[in-house]
Amino acid sequence: MRPADLALHPSPWLKTLGPCGDVVFSTRIRLARNVEGYPFPARLKEPDPRREFEARLAGWLGEARPAEDLHYWNLDGLKPIERLLLMERHLISRELAQGDGDRGVCFSSAEQISIMTNEEDHLRIQVIRPGLAIDEALAMAIEIDRKLETRIPYAFDDQLGYLTACPTNVGTGLRISVMMHLPGLVLGEQMDKVFNAASRVGLAVRGSHGEGSKAVGDVVQISNQHTLGRTEEEIAEVVRAIVAKIVDYERGVRQHLLEESRARVEDKIWRSVGVLRTARLVGSEESQSLLSAVRLGISMKLYGDLRIGDLNELLVLTQPGHLQAIRGKEIRADDRDAVRATLLRERFKAESN
Amino acid sequence: MRPADLALHPSPWLKTLGPCGDVVFSTRIRLARNVEGYPFPARLKEPDPRREFEARLAGWLGEARPAEDLHYWNLDGLKPIERLLLMERHLISRELAQGDGDRGVCFSSAEQISIMTNEEDHLRIQVIRPGLAIDEALAMAIEIDRKLETRIPYAFDDQLGYLTACPTNVGTGLRISVMMHLPGLVLGEQMDKVFNAASRVGLAVRGSHGEGSKAVGDVVQISNQHTLGRTEEEIAEVVRAIVAKIVDYERGVRQHLLEESRARVEDKIWRSVGVLRTARLVGSEESQSLLSAVRLGISMKLYGDLRIGDLNELLVLTQPGHLQAIRGKEIRADDRDAVRATLLRERFKAESN
């Protein structure tokens, strides 16, 4: 599949309700790896050595065949809209999308595996799974890592572990990120519980696009900040425990809201449905917040015309890159609100009749 | 009809689209009159002289038969909710509803005529007509006044004219009030035009319940402040001219908005419809503002499921007294938002399918 076609074929896994899918969107594992004997990407002097090295990485990926059905793309060979699509799908990072120099990505058509080249590190292995699935995602990432290791001479130090461009990744090179939907805690004004629980054990709470992205509304990413001095399993254990606790908090608040403020919650959810069915202009942030309310409504069984997976999909499809790709043309920022509103009306009208 | 039944039979004229009905809700004429030889109501000592005098006024009204089909009610004989209903229907003033002492009202079943006793003055004659209809309303008020004069010895001074409790009403005792719907001017941020035009010729701009009531949102009442030193026709001429000018302003802005900001206006109107169809809690002020947007939408032909008259009716039916009377019981202020939302959903759902 060409990246340009992504918008027409939403990630197959988005519609799947994974474990704890009422509260957890997805689990993402990332391993940072580098190749022995080469400077880190930021120090690979342009253009020749970097270009040559990128081609070599692509070649190794092809030979190692770490998974079926992987296709490699050089980012500079893609249009800006295609890079934006890949980023909105979480197949590449914002850094890779907006960076320059030779760099690339290969991803599987199921979109659960992607490997970036010449991002901050030479290689970034990424596995995404729907819902809360740290063990499965980690196992798959390690399997890919093992296969790559057969071909690629990793920069590894017996004392430190895997060497990385940024010291915060040295050691395991592992980042576990769990994307959570916490509208109950936001409504109940208890988000401080999340920040406290996470920071006590050294986890970060970020927005949906990771480092540097704001936590907008009720979608947050919980991820580990330390990679050194502990095993992959120890890191997973800490994240698993905190996420389980936050899932409990969120479910508890939702139950409490149902019992104590049912009319207020129903009002919030149904108004959102009303606006989604009728509005002619919907901005990006408002769209996320309306869809978030409906997603909550479905999980609370207050709204039944759509499923949680449909909402996960809409949260992606209403982003600027997807909107433009769906309409098959560039749309000025001014006009996107109208296009987004039309898409939302079509979806919500269709379901309501 | 007992006042308690008002809620079940909305004013017949409310549904009628009068002249300039897209911008003008109604025209109201009020004449203040007093009886020679009696102190003004505020000085009628309780209880006997006031009670006796109120009975005499009621008797005169019965004998004079100023119009067909008038029924007289002593306000103290009515329940609080009935007084509230009469006020929300503009058949009595807030002052009469909330006052005490013997006082009353007679009104026709068509609800276009009402006569209050022992309000600020002994008699307040009122005629309401849908839309902009100053001449017709004034003619009807004068006809009633003439009939009353055959039985009631008015307090009249050859130099000053009709004598009234408050000096601002001396002379003609006439107040002309035109209730206008100006959402275009509010949206276009041009309400200062209205205030300027009105104040230049000594007219007042008030909220929908007259003196002391705030101009909430886009419903305002334009009325004369001076009653002395000019004829009824001269006063009417000034109000007629300014109202015509404001009608032109409002229509001009609506046309301009359609041409220049169609998407923004459609968005505002359709969102309002969306919320009215789905919300579970709607406060009194929000209700007025949502219904106002839909009324605008109908007049701009952007929404066609209801007619302007239906909206005029809903603006009255969603007020606290009407809500309680429709449900046939007292409803705590806390619960009214839910009852109001249910009523609105029923109306807007029924029309949308």
Descriptors for this entry?
homodimer; 353 residues; alpha+beta; Creatine Kinase, Chain A, domain 2
Describe the 3D structure.
2 copies of one chain form a homodimer. Chain A contains 12 helices and 10 strands. With 353 residues, chain A is α+β, with helices and mostly antiparallel strands. In chain A, the strands form 2 sheets. An 8-stranded antiparallel beta sheet of chain A has the order 2-3-4-5-1-8-10-9, with helices on one face. Chain A has a two-stranded antiparallel sheet with strand order 6-7. The longest helix of chain A is centred in the C-terminal third of the chain and has 29 residues, at 232-260. In chain A, helix 6 (191-200) packs antiparallel against helix 7 (232-260) and helix 8 (262-278) packs across helix 9 (284-299). The first copy, chain A, folds into 2 domains: 3-255, Creatine Kinase, Chain A, domain 2 (2-Layer Sandwich); 261-352, no CATH class. In chain A, a hairpin with a 3-residue loop joins strand 6 and strand 7 (161-162). The model of chain A has no long low-confidence stretch (mean pLDDT 92). The A-B interface holds A 263-264, 266-267, 270-271, 273-281, 338, 341 and B 263-264, 266-267, 270-271, 273-281, 338, 341.
